[in-house]
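Course assignment 3, question 2. Fill in each field.
Student: A.L.
Task: Predict the tertiary structure for the chain below.
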Amino acid sequence: MATLTTEKPRTFTFLQVTVGLQTLAIFFQAVTAGVLLSSAHGELLHGIGARVMYGATMLYVIAAVLAWRPGGGSPRPVLYSSGFLVLASVQVVLGIARVPSVHVPLGVTMFALSLLALSRRPSARRS
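Answer field:
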C-alpha cells in the first residue's frame, strides 16, 4: 500500500534572504561594470551598487550572528559572512584605487562564492 507524504513548504530564513540580497547586489555590480565601459552614468550606478553591496554584506553578518547566537544555529555562517565582509572591503579599496586587474577577478570570485553560499542548505539547529 502506498502512503502519501507531503513535503514541508519551503520557507526562507532571514539568513537566506540576506545571502540572496548580497548575491543580487554583486550581480548588479557586474552589470553596472559593463555599463561603466559604455556610458557616462555607469560610474554613478557602479558607485551606488558598491554601497548597496557593502550594506548587504554587513546585513549578512548581522543575520549570521543572529542565527548563531540567539537562534542556536551553526557558527559557520558567521565565518562565511565575515570573510565576505573582508572581501567586500578589499573590493571597495581596489575599486577606489582603480586596480581592475585584481578588482574584476575578485568580483567574479565573490559572485561565485555568494552563489555557493546561496545554494547551501541551512544547518540544523542544536537541541
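Instructor remarks: The chain has four helices and no strands. The first helix runs from residue 14 to 38.
Grade: pending
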